[in-house]
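Run Iron complex transport system permease protein through structure prediction, thanks.
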Amino acid sequence: MDTRRTRLTPLVLAAGVLALLAAVTVSTLLGAAELGWTRVAREIVAQVTGGVSPLSEREAAIVWQVRLPRVLLAGLVGAALAVSGAAFQGVFRNPLADPYLLGAAAGAGMAATIVVVAAPAAADWVIGPLPLAAFAGALGGVGLTWLLGRSAGGGTAVLLLSGVAVAAFLTAIQTFAQQLNTDTIKQVYTWMLGGLNTSGWHEVLLTLPYIAVAAVVLCLSARLLDVLAVGDDEAASLGVRPGRVRLYVLLAASLATAAAVAVSGLIGFVGIVVPHVVRLLAGASYRVVVPLSLLGGAVFLIVADQLARTVVAPAELPIGVITAFTGAPFFVLVLRTNRDRVR
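Sure, done. The structure for Iron complex transport system permease protein is below.
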């Protein structure tokens, strides 16, 4: 048996960590502001060793208060979406499942639209209401889907259909609110295309606890996802309670998705592309897919954000556009190679 398909080897894990460190380093050294990567590197060394900084106070602020927090936030959001996508694919045994499947995107979009419409001066607030509303809306959408699915008898198929119904209902509310306030449409769609325009470390500290807790739960549940893959009856015979496992995994994945959406808007395809690349490179066991999706998602979105903020600098592309350019063709490839499993 090929052991790389059933467990995560130290060598593979080390490669993933090194790739993440490389992505963070390169994205911190390079940016839209022309500071010179060698000068930024010397600034980092100076901060670590107590030496003399080669940057002005303003340039140092760009590195430490703008660029580095944004890189770390991209890593957190990418990790959250990718690991949630892997978890959803394991729960539903469907390679096309993504983190927004149960209404998180629709709930977040509706809540964000209501905030934009009802609180146009939100930028003047001490604590921005938009991230909090998106977080609550994403969890609310998943909660409505879960309640509707349970009332209809439960089961994964019923839960998926409930997600479609809830998403359609919440999207209708969002569209209605936009039509009543057409001057806010541009702001809403800018948020929906995704972005990582941070105001510093606040967004990183806001999302880190939720994503960290969810990531720990999902990594600890990876072995149980492998058991679920053989079928509910077989899993039950091994002492696993499929319904309870699905509940815990979906709660953790939804929490991570909600935290990501709250600070980044709706960034598509990360939860589909990254888990499948991991499967192609390292194996199909969720004990491999879940932790490597966590690392791979962080690398993927850091690179995507680097492109978004430098390709047309000083302007900036929505990061959702970058991920769609990569993800849409990959989605077609996944659909063609897994057509027997998604019928």
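The chain is about 75% helix and 0% strand.
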